[in-house]
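Researcher: I've been going back and forth with a colleague about how VOC family protein might be arranged in three dimensions. Neither of us has a model we trust, so I'd like an independent prediction. The organism is Hypericibacter adhaerens, in case that matters for your notes. Sequence below.
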Amino acid sequence: MLVQPYLFFDGRCEEALEFYKRAIGADVTMLMRYKESPEPPPPDCAPTSGEKIMHSSFRVGETIIMASDGYAQGNPKFEGFSLSITVPNEAEADRKFNALADGGKVNLPLTKTFFSPRFGMVADKFGVNWMVIVQH
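Model: Here is an independent structure prediction for VOC family protein. You can compare it with whatever you and your colleague have in mind.
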């Protein structure tokens, strides 16, 4: 069994994909816009713009994350979870953390902890919560 995160950016998916490409080296592996769907979406189940992203997937390291614009109402909410990135060293932790923090909010600055030489928590500019940790 495989469990994968699926993020709904409520109209900001394309912007998020570009941000993650720059910030954490994400590689977009699939992208389909609503206008490219082989079947029309059910009524009240799609944004008005066919340019919005119906489905996408992107790779971060060994993990595939899926994403969409959803209903594209402009109010994405990401609550009750964090995505965690494990990196090999402190320099990489600094780079990833600072890139994710650009335009976002630092919830816990990168610091040494009893379980890691560097750990921090940040909400990116889309509101997705991330934890960056150096494997101890």
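Researcher: What would you highlight for our discussion?
Model: I'd start with this: Residues 83-134 form a domain with the Signal recognition particle alu RNA binding heterodimer, srp9/1 fold (CATH 3.30.720.110). After that, consider the following. The chain has a mean pLDDT of 93.
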